[in-house]
Amino acid sequence: MRIEAINVYSCLLPVKGGTGYRMASDNVQLLDSTLLEVVTDQGFIGWGETCPIGPVYQPHHTLGARAAIAEVAPGLIGQEVSSIRRLAKVMDDRLNGHGYAKAAFDMAILDLLGQKLDVPVSTLLGGALTDRVPSYYSTIVGTPEETARIAADKVKAGYPRLQIKIGGRGLEQDVTTVHKVWEAVGYKARIAVDGNRGLTVAAAIHLDRLCETIPFAFEQPCNTMDEVATLNGRLTHPIYLDENTEDLNAVLRAISLNIADGFGLKVTRLGGLSKMTIVRDMCAIRSLPHTCDDAWGGDVIAAACVHLASTVEPRRFEGAWIAQEYIEGHYDPENPIVIRNGHIEVPQRPGLGVKPELGKLGAPLATY
Ligand code: 0XW
Ligand code: MG
């Protein structure tokens, strides 16, 4: 089976509700996702997606993804799809780095292989351990009262885990938020407190002390891995890295330096599902918990996260975050990826199991 054509689409995914998705590092209102349609000579069509959450969250952005796709795509035309490792080399020979753009191709090729072999993508990733994965609810930076109210509601809705956003404001607000959420929720859900790189080392140490008796994972408190490394041995809470895990080497470095107790992982940031299986297995060696997320995106990215999530040992799995709670509708209304009772069913159809409705995407931005 050979690649005959590649179409690139834009799909606007606005944040619903009007206030935006507010993190310490940025407040985003509208995300412009990039979808890839990979057409083969055998009539199979594979889909991939990459959708950075704005240009500030991590060193990725929409136009960067599209420029990288323009470098890579012409080299894939005419290529046989059976060896994803060889296709990865074809991409690397045309462009150094830019894993978040190559990730969309990796997803689309796995979608194609799954359809051709008549198996879901989870099978190609090593095999599912479950047919339903837990998700988690991520709040935005808000007042302590409002955040606690949302936290309690989401626990009632069935979420087994909450991620509470803090940072980019005074310490008192952050500390009060964590206490109020704990009072509202207690042991009913596991809690992560996500600073999204917004705290100084000093503020992280203060927050840790002032919330000492509350069990939570402290996610990406400071900007760089070096800052986070200085917290080693000085905190009572476990530290999870998210934004700093920019590639496989960053994960390997964090594990070997013993500076991370777990990870918030993004499929596209790490270069795609194939690369994520390596990270999954590195984490398994050290019994490290992690999520399977992406920064934003629609049903294709959501399906990718869920397939991978189903292959992670459940006792170490921290949940699959998808953007559904913050976006309106689905571009695959027939087989959407949905959260029910805080959990997501793993698609059993061949490939990723989702197909964007072309009418929702408009004309291609580019065709190769
Ligand atoms: C909760 N997320 C997975 C969604 C947004 O991209 C932010 C991110 C995080 O954990 O930082
Ligand atoms: Mg995070």
Explain this structure.
- The protein has 11 helices and 15 strands.
- With 368 residues, it is α/β, with parallel strands linked by helices.
- The protein has a 6-stranded parallel β-sheet with strand order 7-8-9-10-11-12, with helices on one face.
- It starts with a strand and ends with a strand.
- A hairpin with a 4-residue loop joins strand 2 and strand 3 (27-28).
- Helix 1 packs across helix 2 and helix 9 packs parallel to helix 10.
- The protein has helices at residues 62-76, 84-94, 99-117, 121-124, 144-156, 171-185, 201-210, 225-230, 248-256, 273-285, 299-309; strands at residues 3-14, 21-22, 27-28, 30-40, 45-50, 132-134, 137-138, 161-165, 190-194, 217-219, 239-241, 262-263, 339-340, 343-345, 366-367.
- (2S,4R)-4-hydroxy-1,1-dimethylpyrrolidinium-2-carboxylate binds next to loops.
Brief summary of the model shown:
This protein has helices spanning 62-76, 84-94, 99-117, 121-124, 144-156, 171-185, 201-210, 225-230, 248-256, 273-285, 299-309, and strands at residues 3-14, 21-22, 27-28, 30-40, 45-50, 132-134, 137-138, 161-165, 190-194, 217-219, 239-241, 262-263, 339-340, 343-345, 366-367. The protein has 368 residues and is α/β, with parallel strands linked by helices.
Mean pLDDT: 97
Uncertain runs with pLDDT below 50, 5 residues or more?
A: none
- Main-sheet strand order equals 7-8-9-10-11-12
Distance between the termini: 17 Å
What characterizes the major β-sheet? Answer: 6 strands, parallel
Index terms:
368 residues, globular, binds (2S,4R)-4-hydroxy-1,1-dimethylpyrrolidinium-2-carboxylate
